[in-house]
Structures are given as structure tokens and as C-alpha cells.
Amino acid sequence: MIPKGSPQEKSQIKDLGGGLILRQATPADGESLSTFNARIHQREGSKEPDERVGMWTRDLVARPHPKFTISDFTLVEDINLGRIVSTLGLISQTWSYAGIQFKVGRLELVGTDSAYREKGLVRAQFEVLHQWSAERNELVQGITGIPYYYRLFGYEMAMELGGGRVGFKALIPELKADDEPFHLRSAEDSDLPF
Fold it and tell me: Is the pLDDT of residue 1 over 60?
């Protein structure tokens, strides 16, 4: 049972039954969210939490961010155990296409504890974040991850995430030493301020 007047009660969005509640994250959830996301997003085959994801979550919720606060996270809490079992965040962004700017809702850090999967927890959070995104006049929502999985929530593959160009040193013509206007070197500590 959630104590009356507690931050959890005030931030509750929906009772999902079975001791699970969907709510907005509060400042008190910051470290738990970071720990949860590091654990839930650990690399396949690894037993170690993904500290990179934990640090990213910590930065989002603890450092001033122009378009994100901790309340932009939804979470599902098992109130019987007092722990987070699923999360989803909405990062509002402005993108540009052909010089035209538009608002985008970037959904990130989707994760559910394996013991709680296939209970509709992510779907319930998507419904809330889609509503928030519409209220913010965001014309598009985007998510990276598992294409076939996100199709279950109305998403379609729009573009490949990765890409780039590769060049081979052997194909670069030699220039005379005095003709080369640029020089390539490894970065050094003294370059950090730049």
C-alpha cells in the first residue's frame, strides 16, 4: 500500500493491479533509476551492469538539462517489494529537416525486469508518454532499438541508425610536405579545453 500523501501517491498515474503502479519518477527515484537502467541494459552475455547507461541516466536526472527532468520518466513500481520494475523516458528535442524545425519526442531507456515482462507494462508507459508528447506539440516520436519490437507500439523503421564513410590511407595521394595545409595527430590532454 502506498502511504497517503507520499511522493509515490502524488505521482501515481495508474494502478496496474497485482501490486504494480505506474507513476512519474520523483527526485527520490534518481539513484534507483540509474541502478535499474544500468542493470536492465547490461550487454548480452554480461553479468555486469552497463555503467555507461547508468551514468547517462544519472546525468539526465541529476544534472540540469534544457529539455528533460526526472518527471519525464515513467516507471512501474512493485509496491510489495518497493522496487522499480520498468521504466521509460521522454526527451523532448527540436530537429530540423531542410531548415524547417519541428518538435520531436525521443523515447529512451525502455526497460523491464525479466520477471515482469509480457504484462503490458511498456505498453502502459508508451500510452502515457505518447499523450505527454502530444501535449507538448511534438509532431514525431522516435525511438532507437529493436525495430520489430517497437512495431508493436505503432513505430515503423524510418532510417538506419548507423552509417558513415570509410577511407583507406593507401588511396590518399602523397602531397609534397609544403603543400599540405592540415596535419593529423592524436589528441592530447592539452586539447581538452578546445
Answer: no
Q: Please choose, from the candidates 123, 111, 124, the residue with its C-alpha nearest in 3D space to the C-alpha of residue 57.
A: 111
Helix axes 51-62, 30-40, angle to 10 degrees: 150
CA 62 to chain centre: 15
Distance CA 48, CA 64 (A): 28
Q: In what order do the strands lie in the sheet with 73-78?
A: 12-17, 20-24, 73-78, 83-97, 100-112, 140-142
pLDDT at position 182 over 80: no
**Lookup: cell for 157:** 523503421
pLDDT in tens, 123-142: 999 999 999 999 999 999 98
**DSSP symbols for 49-109:** --HHHHHHHHHHHHS--TT--GGGEEEEEETTTTEEEEEEEEEEEEEEETTEEEEEEEEEE
Please tell me whether residue 123 adopts helix, strand or coil conformation: helix
